[in-house]
Write a structure and sequence with these properties.
The protein contains 5 helices and 2 strands; from the N terminus they run αββαααα. It is mostly helical. Strands 1-2 form a two-stranded antiparallel ribbon. The model has no long low-confidence stretch (mean pLDDT 91).
């Protein structure tokens, strides 16, 4: 998955309301009733990089499809599935 600035804003502040009326940072309209402050352009850009190179993206690339995961559970049991998933989580830990 390729994360963009919209994803980054949601990641930084999943509860605030905002709209983007164009393509530039100046076009980001932050709802004044939000409790949180508008993230800076640098914060948004850094979060895009983090989302695209961070542990979530690396884990996502290595996780089997959900169909394969269900097949693993069916044939080998939940404990075997947990071992497989834990190996990926351990390889790419949360910061």
């Amino acid at each position: 998955m390729n994360y963009n600035k919209h994803d980054a804003i949601f990641s930084l502040d999943p509860v605030s309301n905002w709209t983007w009326t164009g393509f530039e940072y100046a076009d980001l309209v932050w709802d004044s009733s939000n409790k949180n402050t508008k993230p800076t352009e640098a914060e948004i850009d850094a979060e895009v990089i983090n989302l695209n190179t961070g542990y979530q993206t690396k884990r996502e690339a290595e996780y089997p499809s959900w169909q394969d995961q269900l097949d693993k559970i069916y044939h080998s049991g939940i404990d075997a599935w947990k071992v497989d998933i834990k190996a990926i989580k351990d390889k790419y830990p949360k910061p």
